[in-house]
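Quick check before the chapter quiz. The format below is the same one you will see on the exam, so make sure you can read both the input and the output lines.
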Amino acid sequence: MTEVDVVRVFADEHGRHGNALGVVLDPAGLSQADQQAIAAELGYSETVFVEDVGSARLRIYTPAVELPLAGHPLVGVSWLLARETGRAQDFLRPVLLAEPVPTFVEDGATWVRATVADAPPWDHLRLAEAAEVEAADPATADEKVQMWAWLDERAGVVRARVFARAFGVAEDEACGSATLMLAAQLGRPITVRHGEGSVVLARPAGPGLGEVGGRVVYDMRRAL
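Here is the expected output.
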């Protein structure tokens, strides 16, 4: 039996919405093929397998592929490890990255700082109005795109949706890596109203770096 903790990452200020994340804190005996199969069975946009809680060494899977970097899984697992261990995390160590990923808490939000080039190769499509983002059809959208429009450009508030069939996900409720990339491209902090009602915070963090963060809520533990 495999136990999976489920959290919602990038919840709104009332703890609603957010992108579901599965986290396996004890993957002993599971091969990489087993882990990929579990991620596919769960069907969340990502599932994390923590190979060592003490060092925060982990693997990240979509239902279709393993990723070196993804925003909502790293934010979510940082929060969950702090909850489980009783101490805030300083770094996460995705197996497929050469360097650890810094993580920290600020104003009630959990953040990670990452190299933009390590993110999946998202496309970004700016639309003229938020209503066009709302009307986008996942069936006809590109396979790995973040569609976005300004809700309030002066305040840095964005409306966005992500479509990710290339990674086995029709629509990603709240995508941290695409939003991190968008903030880096815009060169300014942004607050993104994502998916059905999630809230993603992102900002540039120096040359080639970005930060993404948000609120995390624990949902349940399930067994497979």
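If your answer matched, good. Residues 71-85 form the longest helix (15 residues).
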